[in-house]
């Protein structure tokens, strides 16, 4: 079976999802998990975008040992030099150059003729090859580029020294037949094509990113680019977990495989969702909460008789384990530790003790504590952002005929205790107004969402918010059996992250790929 290389761009194209802005620690944590998942290549960012991006790419390059680390670059010497610097310390560095080739981009964005595009790309690839053994070239918007010109561009890239030519359907415009045909045409017509790897990079604007990528594989693509959970610009990119599971489930059809460690899929999905703040829809293929849930009586009956009647993938293949051991307030440290091991957590004694204390606190408020509760509890905080403001207490008064009112007590980093009261047009609004007074920060609430982590009236509620301050935005996450407390925690988490960003020079919120 043919090996398909997996190029993960969660940290670059995925980070271009609206509202997502990962800091260096978060990028490194995701990269290390991607390494465990076994992706072959990790695109860590766009170093020329800002010093902060460059530093994050460098941190990833130094941390990851078992995957090639890639930096994105426009076809300009300055960008290429920025990638060189950012990839110092990488075991297996690679540069990803791009230049748009479609008539629309040539005319309106670049204002360049075909010849000028060929020349600029040729120059950039040759310059990059002086410093990199591995150079990937992407004709941006290849999907809407004239096929004969795309063949010319690919031939030029091979001659100039590219080792991978990536075909992006930048705007998610094509259907599987058309996208597959590009690969077949390039394979059949471009001299020297056998010397390089061909790659596919699809966007999901019409919901066809996975189908298009699979069509590329059927027509000779060696590499698939995508992101975890399919995050990315607009409607997102190809979801890597879908490609891996399509190939693993239908080897008879695709005759191709990835070398991913499939058992790490669920964990990677959760981590990316948590750190990007992008919830995974319940019905998302492979990693959605309902992907393995059977609701109808007929299906349940079939499942009980023989799982394969309605299940084409066993959940444990992607690392989802249904543990039967339910804990409660009488459970001891030993049972708790066994549970953690069973769920795949490797914690040292101190972390187990810390988690056990949190578990006891939760078990006091909740009758039974299941896997989802424990997972949410252990993964609660978004990386160790310095806690400038911590919630001490919260008091809310609500009646459907009175004005909601909240009092919060906040502890500042210097130990000062600040108590503030405020009204609002709802309980959450009152809490947020009181927190604003206590933190003395002016922020704008851009997004608020709430979901239940487990089932039952006493389920843990998880709140996610996005706050904006000047041009910076930050997400926050809060967890509690009470949704008002979870709302307050999420808000303060985001305020703390805005502080952290202000104190980290060189951060940027938006990058331009023009
Ligand atoms: O979608 C796209 O065209 C890209 C390029 C930078 C490869 O992300
Ligand atoms: Zn893209």
Keywords, please?
514 residues; alpha/beta; TIM Barrel; Double Stranded RNA Binding Domain; 3 domains; 8-stranded parallel barrel; 39% helix; globular; binds 3-methyl-2-oxobutanoic acid; binds zinc ion; manganese ion binding; acetyl-CoA C-acetyltransferase activity; LeuA_allosteric_dom_sf
CATH architecture of the largest domain: Alpha-Beta Barrel
Task: Give the strand order of the largest sheet, numbering strands 1, 2, ... along the chain.
Answer: 2-3-4-5-6-7-8-9
Instruction: Give the ligands present.
Output: 3-methyl-2-oxobutanoic acid, zinc ion
Mean pLDDT value:
92
> Total domains, how many?
3
Write down the Rg: 25 Å
**Helical content, roughly?**
25-40%
CATH superfamily of the largest domain: Aldolase class I
The CATH topology of the largest domain comes to TIM Barrel
Low-confidence stretches: none
Explain what this protein looks like in three dimensions.
- This protein is of the alpha/beta class and 514 residues long.
- The chain has 17 helices and 16 strands.
- It has 3 domains: 2-276, Aldolase class I (TIM Barrel, Alpha-Beta Barrel), CATH 3.20.20.70; 294-378, no CATH class; 389-503, 2-Layer Sandwich (Double Stranded RNA Binding Domain).
- β8 (197-202), α8 and β9 (223-226) form a beta-alpha-beta unit.
- α7 (176-189) packs parallel to α8 and α16 (427-439) packs parallel to α17.
- The longest helix has 20 residues, at 483-502.
- The radius of gyration is 25 Å and the shape is globular.
- The mean pLDDT is 92.
- Zinc ion (ZN) binds next to loops.
